[in-house]
Design a protein that fits this description.
The complex is a heterodimer. By secondary structure, chain A is mostly beta strands. Chain A contains no helices and eleven strands. Chain B is mainly β. Classes of the chains: A mainly beta, B mainly beta.
Chain lengths: 115, 110
Amino acid sequence: DAGVIQSPRHEVTEMGQEVTLRCKPISGHNSLFWYRQTMMRGLELLIYFNNNVPIDDSGMPEDRFSAKMPNASFSTLKIQPSEPRDSAVYFCASSPPGVGTDTQYFGPGTRLTVL
Amino acid sequence: SQQGEEDPQALSIQEGENATMNCSYKTSINNLQWYRQNSGRGLVHLILIRSNEREKHSGRLRVTLDTSKKSSSLLITASRAADTASYFCATDRTGNQFYFGTGTSLTVIP
C-alpha cells in the first residue's frame, strides 16, 4: 500500500487566497484525521471523520476552515481566506476499523506558507 | 489541556548510549502510544501500551507505564544516529482520537 497520500507537499500562497489541501487515506481505513503542527502549539487535531462523517470538529480554529470527506478515499481541508498565522504543516492520518486498532498512519504532510 | 507533555524537550547523546524520555498526562487513559517523527516527515507509530500493562518491549525500545503517576517512559537502548528524530506520546481521548504531546527532540551524535 502507498500509505496516506497528501497533496500538495508544499504550498505558498498570499494572504486572502483560498487554499485546498488533499488527502487520500489508506484503503480500508474508516477513520481520518486532520492535524496542524506548529512550533508554538505542537500537533493539534483539527477534525476527525469516521465512515466519512465528521465526528469532532472542535479543533477547527474558525469558520475560515472547512473539511469534507465525500467518499472513503478522499478528503479535503480548505482555508478561505488564508492568513499568515495559518502557516504550518498540515497532516492527514487514517486508522483502520475495529476494536484495539488504535494506531494512526500519517501522511507526509503539506507545508503551507501564507505570505 | 489533556495533552501529554514530554520531558526533556531536547536530548543529545552519543551513539551507543541509551536515551530515556518521559511523558506525563492528566486524565485516565485506555492506552498510550509513542510515535517518532523524522525531520520533514509524518509521524510513525512505534509502540502502544494499554492501561493494564506496565512494560512493553519492541526491539531496542522499552516502554513503561505508571497509571498511578500518570506517566510513561520510552527507553531507546544502544542508540544510533538514525534514531535522531522527535518523539511524541499520544494519549487516547474519545473514540479513537488522541492527544499528542509536545515532543522530545533527540539527537544522536555519531
